[in-house]
Write a structure and sequence with these properties.
7 strands
Length: about 190
């Protein structure tokens, strides 16, 4: 696995052993960022100088990809011990410590936010209905800015969750993943 675009393009990222972490494949990550950078509902401004939240971060590939492409900062939420160690290693390999924060917390019970995110990535385990629950918890704790873009992955077989408070701008399928591009209420 590697960073596919931006300043750190080609930088290899570590992955934890085992199957507890399911990182977004390079091709799917490239496709997601192509949508973000070129879609009429997003564009370069969606990533450039964004304050990113990478929930269920795993290896941190999505947040690090955003930083590589010009995001200002990233907060990573992950609670699995092996994934957190790998995430910290990947941040160090990118020399991104000054622009990142790692919170070893449950995304469904986050602490109060210091600053809301303008770009949010959620890639929870499939088949548990976690995306709507995570959005509700993160929103209540101030993590999601009005008008923020949310990129959420659910299993292709899971069906589309009810996304109250969010407009679905686009959806794509990449292998086993169904990727939703959502806009939080309260912004353009």
């Amino acid at each position: 696995m590697r960073i596919v675009g931006g300043a750190w393009r080609g930088r290899r990222l570590a992955t934890p052993a085992g199957e507890a972490t399911r990182p977004t494949a390079d091709r799917a990550r490239q496709a997601i960022f192509d949508v973000l950078l070129h879609a009429p509902f997003a564009g370069r401004a969606a990533v450039l100088d964004a304050h990113v939240l990478d929930g269920f971060a795993g290896t941190g590939a999505m947040g690090l990809e955003a930083l590589s492409r010009g995001a200002a900062s990233a907060v990573f939420m992950e609670q699995a011990r092996a994934a957190v160690a790998t995430l910290r290693s990947n941040i160090a390999a990118c020399r991104a410590e000054g622009r990142t924060q790692v919170l070893t917390v449950d995304v469904l019970a986050p602490p109060r936010a210091d600053r809301p995110a303008t770009l949010v990535f959620l890639d929870p385990p499939y088949r548990h209905g976690l995306v709507p629950r995570a959005l509700a918890a993160l929103g209540a704790a101030g993590w999601i800015a009005p008008g923020a873009l949310v990129v959420a992955e659910v299993g292709a077989e899971d069906g589309l969750p009810d996304m109250a408070g969010y407009a679905c701008c686009d959806e794509r399928r990449y292998g086993a993943a169904h990727v939703l591009f959502l806009r939080a209420e309260g912004g353009g």
